[in-house]
Specification:
two-stranded antiparallel sheet, alpha+beta, 384 residues, MetI-like fold, 8% strand
């Protein structure tokens, strides 16, 4: 009996109160119990408070009629549709601005980051000024600037600014031509053009690119002879009160997209600059000694190595952009948070709707993290 107690109290001849592994295990166990107890306390209080005030925490309202309009929607939506469809519209609007913002801010931020380390003095100073200005101004202030000072200051529809395209700029939005594809004549082209493209991306040889261009030209030539022109351009035309046809970018969506792109690209530029400068200078000197030009050195030597440093913080910027899109409520763009707040006003179910909003942003952030971590794993695969 004494030997059993001694084995329990001593591990490798060390008392358990002095053993770091035992103390670490006990600390983790205690922390877990405290967190579980705290969560149980908070949930219990929330349920009791909701029951006392007559609030329902269920989701039975989700299939009821929403009863409110949404100014912008990726899918067809009517006020007679359910709350679930209204919330889906908000999620799709958030995804649309987030995906476009990620693409545009990555392109702009990469260009500015390369300019930051350029030997051209003018490009370097312009990028420095850009980064220091837009990185240090709060995003909400920038959204107000783009919405009220830029988009709302555009002329009225009747005196809209016309650009080549034709593209029209007015205080009701930006109107662009829209390319419409004939579904019957274009559907059969999709597999015929996708398969050669996948082969090219796999082998990456010059004659494959030439073959792909000739193949596309032949396919579209046959389509033209068989079905006629497979595409048509729908251009905006000024009517009595507004433009008809084409694509309309509303001031709310435009201001949000520009604000997110400009703000996030200033951070991405610094990430790209730091990644490029993290590559040892000997790599550049070795490339020059082999006869590579500056562009070839940057494209073939520096950027591939810098990506291993760039991608992890770049993922954080993508997450920030997705979450910062919730500031759209300040300028009236119907994103997830905006639609959720309207649902609360209509249904009076604050707790479950806020839970839906939190879940939506959490899932979106998790998706960007998984995609970014996948590419990060591919780049660092085999790295010692």
């Amino acid at each position: 009996m004494f030997l059993i107690k001694k084995k329990l109290l001593y591990r490798n001849g060390i008392p358990f109160w002095r053993d770091s592994k035992s103390l670490s295990f006990l600390a983790q166990l205690l922390s877990t119990l405290i967190v579980i107890s705290l969560l149980g306390f908070l949930v219990t209080n929330l349920i009791n408070a909701a029951n006392a005030r007559g609030f329902s925490l269920g989701f039975g309202f989700i299939n009821q009629e929403a009863g409110f309009p949404i100014s912008e929607s990726v899918i067809n939506y009517e006020p007679s549709n359910s709350f679930l469809k209204a919330f889906s519209v908000g999620i799709l609007n958030t995804l649309r601005v987030a995906i476009l913002g990620i693409i545009l801010s990555t392109i702009l931020g990469t260009f500015l980051g390369v300019c930051r380390v350029s030997s051209n003095w003018l490009l370097r100073q312009i990028s420095v000024i850009y980064v220091e200005i837009f990185r240090n101004i709060p995003l909400l202030v920038q959204l107000f600037f783009w919405y009220f000072i830029v988009f709302q200051a555009l002329p009225r529809v009747q005196t809209a600014i016309e650009l080549p395209g034709p593209i029209y700029l007015s205080n009701r939005g930006i109107f662009l031509p829209f390319i419409e594809f004939d579904s019957l004549s274009i559907l059969w082209l999709i597999p015929l053009t996708t398969i050669p493209l996948l082969l090219i991306l796999k082998h990456k040889r010059l004659h494959h690119y030439l073959f792909f261009i000739l193949f596309i030209a032949l396919a579209y030539g046959i389509s033209f002879l068989q079905f006629g022109i497979p595409v048509s351009i729908d251009t905006p035309v000024l009517g009595k009160f507004n433009f008809a046809g084409g694509i309309r970018i509303t001031p709310e969506f435009g201001a949000l997209l520009v604000g997110l792109t400009v703000y996030t690209s200033s951070f991405i530029a610094e990430i790209v600059r730091a990644g490029i400068q993290s590559v040892p200078r000997g790599q550049t000197e070795s490339a020059y000694s082999l006869g590579l030009s500056k562009n070839e050195t940057l494209r073939l030597i520096i950027i591939p190595q810098a990506l291993k440093v760039i991608i992890p913080p770049l993922i954080n910027q993508y997450l920030n952009l997705s979450k910062n899109s919730s500031l759209a409520i300040a300028i009236g763009f119907p994103d997830t948070f905006f639609v959720g707040r309207t649902m609360i006003n209509q249904a009076g179910r604050a707790v479950p709707i806020f839970g839906m909003i939190m879940l939506a942003y959490g899932v979106m952030s998790l998706i960007w993290s998984i995609i970014g971590n996948f590419f990060d794993h591919k780049l660092n695969k085999g790295k010692a």
